[in-house]
Amino acid sequence: MNEHSLKKTLSKLNIGGLRYFDSIGSTNDEALAWAAAGASDLSIVIADEQTQGRGRLDRKWFTPKGSGLAFSLILRPSATLRPHLSRTVGLAALSIAESCSALGLTPRIKWPNDILLNGKKTAGILVETVWSGEDVDSLVIGMGVNVHKASVPPAELLQFPATSLEDELGKEAPAREEILFSILSSFVRWRERLGTDELIQAWEEMLAFRGEQVQIHTGNEDPTNGKLIGLESDGSLRLSDAHDKSVIIRFGDVSLRPGA
Question: What average pLDDT is seen over the chain?
């Protein structure tokens, strides 16, 4: 993967701009600075190697050279999309999940921001906001996808089992540029439907552990147990507790685990 091959592959998409790095600390950090400096909508920062990538809850996400996809997408929301920005992580998750489905795999979305294959984490998402006063100026959507086997960290460093597209396919994975094109194509299509029930339904249908007992850890509070039912209209998670009462889990410092 290099800048030339990326530009050639992405030429059919109306991206706003491209910054490619052989190695970088964090694509999200670069994208946040670029967004604050006026980057165009759908501009992309991508790196062959990411050394200080991060996920939610300050967890680290490393992308060894030549092993995976590490990129950040800058989104400047239109007036019609602004009321639905809480759904952005679902938009990104669906885009990655659809690209996995196109390869013949069966992805599931571990709410709110991970993609699982056979119960193992294959991709993660981190959405960060650039503010202009009290208004959202832009969003930076960081996505990391384990493509080749070398992208999966050693087991002792994992908090949740992980895998790669190559491991799950049982053969060599497609070129990373092709996977990126597939993800971005899905993203562009779903973006226009961000405010629709269709997006929530598609996201809900792909939820991992749906109908199962799960445990939710929120900050320093006691964990919440319940059956995972589905999603609220804003993308929040809906559980049913032991008394069949609905429990709504909002976004934030949240960690979901199967079982209770």
Answer: 91
Instruction: Residue count of the chain, please give it.
Output: 260
CB 239 within 8 A of CB 214: yes
d(CA 148, CA 246): 40
What gap in Å lies between CA 225 and CA 107, rounded to an integer?
24
* Cα(163)–Cα(58) distance, integer angstroms: 21
* pLDDT tens for each residue of 24-48: 999 999 999 999 999 999 999 999 9
pTM of the model: 0.92
Q: pLDDT of 84-95, one tens digit each?
A: 999 999 999 999
Within the chain, residue ranges assigned H as helices are 3-9, 27-36, 88-102, 165-169, 176-191, 197-205
For the purposes of burial, counting CB atoms within 10 Å of the CB of 233, is it exposed (0-12), middle (13-18) or buried (19 or more)?
exposed
- Burial class of residue 55 (count of CB atoms within 10 Å of its CB; 0-12, 13-18, 19+): middle
Cα–Cα distance measured from residue 152 to residue 19, given in angstroms and rounded to the nearest whole number: 25
- Orientation of helix 88-102 relative to helix 197-205, angle to 10°: 60
